Structures are given as structure tokens and as C-alpha cells.
Amino acid sequence: MKTHEVRVHRSDEDLPREGELAWALAGLATDPAPLEQLVEPAVAEMVGNRVVDNAAVAAASLLRAPVVAARAQALAHPPSRGGAGAPVVGTATPVSPEWAAWAGGVAVRELDFHDTFLAADYSHPGDSIPALLAVAQHRGCDGAALLRGIVTAYEVQVDLVRAISLHRHKIDHVAHLGPAVAAGLGAMLGLDRETVHQAIGQALHTTTATRQSRKGAISTWKAFAPAFAGKVAIEAVDRAMRGQTSPAPIWEGEDGVIAWLLDGPGARYAVPLPEPGEPRRAILDTYTKEHSAEYQAQAIIDLARRLHVEHPELREPGAIRSVVLHTSHHTHHVIGSGANDPQKYDPRASRETLDHSVPYIFTVALQDGTWHHVNSYAPDRAARPDTVALWRTVSTAEDEGWTRRYHDPDPTARAFGGRVEIELTDGGRVVAEIAVADAHPQGARPFARPDYDRKLAVLAEDVLAAEEVARFTDLAHRLPDLDADAVRRLQIVAPEALLASVAAPEGLF
């Protein structure tokens, strides 16, 4: 790896294009090295796993309101002139690729149940796949080209997340996703470096937004935000291919993103990037979710499940006086009591809010000994009197040690869990901790290919026919060898009657 130094430059310094981060990322995307040199077998296998993972969570969300709305919007936009179109998630109906990406992106994110990477910032790199897949299907790319694009998008997003914190400045993390998708599309389509450079700049410029989408009463926009980033990245690539240019230098400019939205004029970042021809391994540092909840809650769910079995006395109503979860700064301030969001303790809160409330999540997982992507969020489950009573005794506290472990530069030592201290009404005390989720690469039961396949089978149980699950899984795991026709069939297709069972809302289109 090499380090690209990034800082703000005054306009009169005249930063050469070759010094821009966007130019360096465009170089990464347009590396002419053979695919077999850039993509090792373990990486190719993991890409297939994540395609299956995305399909699993998309299948489980097909009838949820945001996905129904996004699908209806997409179906109103027939294929554009530049290709054959791409099928809308859950159907075989082709539409214009940016709208297929839109619908697919919403379906993948709606349950907040796919892959994650946490470092200086946080991300869901799998959000890039719907946009890349839609354009590949539209333009007739084969599996090898799509693989190159996905690996590139993961590399760009992970490398940005390693170095540049957005959440510290209340900027939503999709500002790293837009440039990643643009770079991935450039790699997949074989575009030249200048075109990709312009697309990356436009994608960043149009995908920077505040993190109010994940604060307070969290709305359905949380599912749409990454889909929007993918959609506008596609549009940015289209404009760049037509010779249109972008604000530059987009990160480093005197009035650019760093100077006014991030750490300011004195900021310096060191972004690690692979050398030309160096294998792209970033996807192997990412991890998926076993449970449908914010990633920092994954380990806490596993800890609560363990306590449910090891300490059955904790299940009794009134047995607990207080619960304090000592954890990282990020967990405390984003999904814990440090967020100062009263909605995180409100049984009438939206599902999106509850999935960002670790006090709620710990309570239900402790009482039930399990976690379910639907049942654990049901309004009657959240409103159960014994749950509400226990829930309101649960708080979080920042612990410097856990914060250090959260940011450990060694990915094998990085930890996203915490220590729980439970005071009982009889004067007893229970203390336990967990470093990483069971499904994490360093966890008790790291996710492997059979786990991804099982996740799709389980989440699609009432949605897709078993034959459809097997068909899609087979294609995903053969991704590098697929021809263009097979890539066009790389979409889950649900029964028409199932999709029609939920009325599509009316809009402008």
C-alpha cells in the first residue's frame, strides 16, 4: 500500500491534478493490470458471498413500504437508450439503470442487515453493489467486469473510511459511497482516468449531506440515502462520459469538502491506497451482520443471548435495578444514551429508531434470547410493560479502553463490543463483556459461504420459491465466469401475486 497525503490547498497554490485524491482514486479504478492479478480467489469468493448477502436482505424487505415505493418509482422509468435496461429488484422487468439501482439500493438497506466496515468513519460497502449490478446489466457487462467494479468500489470506500471521518462533523457516511460507486463503474466499464476523475468529483459533490437522517426520529430516508448516492453516482458517470467536468479539487479546494464540511483548512489525512498492480483486498476487512440491527449492536445482541442462557434469573420481571453498558465513544453517542435522543427509549418509535437504540436491543435480546428482523421490532413487542420497565434502566457509558479498541489500527484487534454491568434488585451483580460479534472474522463463529447461503434461504423463506433461491445462489457464486446474459439474470424474482399483494403508492411518475 502507498499513502496519499491530503490537505486543503489555497486557490493560489494551484494544486496539480496529479496531486488530487480524486485523481489518485481514478488511477486505482483504471489500473490496467489483469483481473487475476488484482483479484485473489478469496476476494472473488467474498464478492459472491456479498451478492448473496444483499439478495437475502432485499428479499426480506420486498413488501416493506420504502421498498414498495422505490420499486413503483423505478417501474415508471422504462429502459433508456444506452442499453437493455436492468431488472427491478424482485422482478424481471427492465427499467433505466439508475432507477433499477435506486430500487435495489433501498431494498438492500431497508433492514440494515448487510455488510459493514468501521474505522475512522463507518460504512456499508455492500451499498455499492446495486448500482454496479444495474449498470452491468444495462450495458451487457460480463461477470469478470462486474467483479472488477465491485472490488474497486469496496477498495475505494474502505480506504476512505480508514482515513477520513465524516460522522465527527455530522456528515452522512454516504459521502464516501458516491465516489466509490463512481470509481467502481469506471473500472467495470473500462473508462479512461480523466473521465473517472470527473465522475468521482461529481459523485462526492452531489452526495454530501448531514447525518440528521440517523438522528432523532429516524425516518424511512435512512433506507433511501445510499440508494440516492448510487443513483447520482451513475448519473455523474453518465455526465462525465459526455465530457462534462466537476468541481476541483473537490476534497482539497479552498472552498472544498475538507475545508468547510470536515476538519477545516488545517486538516491533513493519510489515505492508504494500493500500488498499481497490487491485489485489492479491502473487502476481506469488512464483515456482515447476523442480526438485523446497527452493527455496533451485533456483539451486544450476542452478549445478551449468552446472558439469557447463563443467567436465567435476569429474565424475571423486576429482577434488574440497572444496566450500564460500557462501550466505545461511537456506540455510546450514536446508538446509546449518549445520543441524547429520547426517541431511543420510546416504545412508539419507528423501526429505524429502534434499530439505532442499543438500550432497546439489549433489553429484547436479553429477555428473548434471540433476535428477529421482524418480530423483535414489532410494536406490541416494543410496548410490552416488562420490556419498557427494563429498557428504561439501561444506559451506556463511554469507556476509553473500548474506544481505543474500536479504532485499533490492527483489524484483527479492533473491537466493537463492550462490558455490561448489571445491578440486581436483590443486591447481586452480573458483569460480562464481548469484543466482537460471533459472526465477525475474529468472532466465535465467523460467517462463511454456507452461512451466507443459509441467510438467503431463511430470509427468503416466505418470499421466493426454493428453486429461485437455488438459481440465484448458483449464479452469484459463479460470478467471475458469468457471461453478459447470466449477469442480466442475476436478480431475485418474486411471484407477481406476492408483489401485487401490497398496493403501490401513487406519486408524480
TrEMBL record:
List residues of the MmgE/PrpD C-terminal domain: 291-478
InterPro entries attached to this UniProt entry: MmgE/PrpD_sf (IPR036148), MmgE/PrpD_sf_1 (IPR042183), MmgE/PrpD_sf_2 (IPR042188), MmgE_PrpD (IPR005656), MmgE_PrpD_C (IPR045337), MmgE_PrpD_N (IPR045336)
The residues covered by the MmgE/PrpD N-terminal domain are 40-268
Its family? Belongs to the PrpD family.
Protein known as: MmgE/PrpD family protein
Natural source organism: Kineococcus gynurae
Q: What is the lineage of its organism?
A: Bacteria, Bacillati, Actinomycetota, Actinomycetes, Kineosporiales
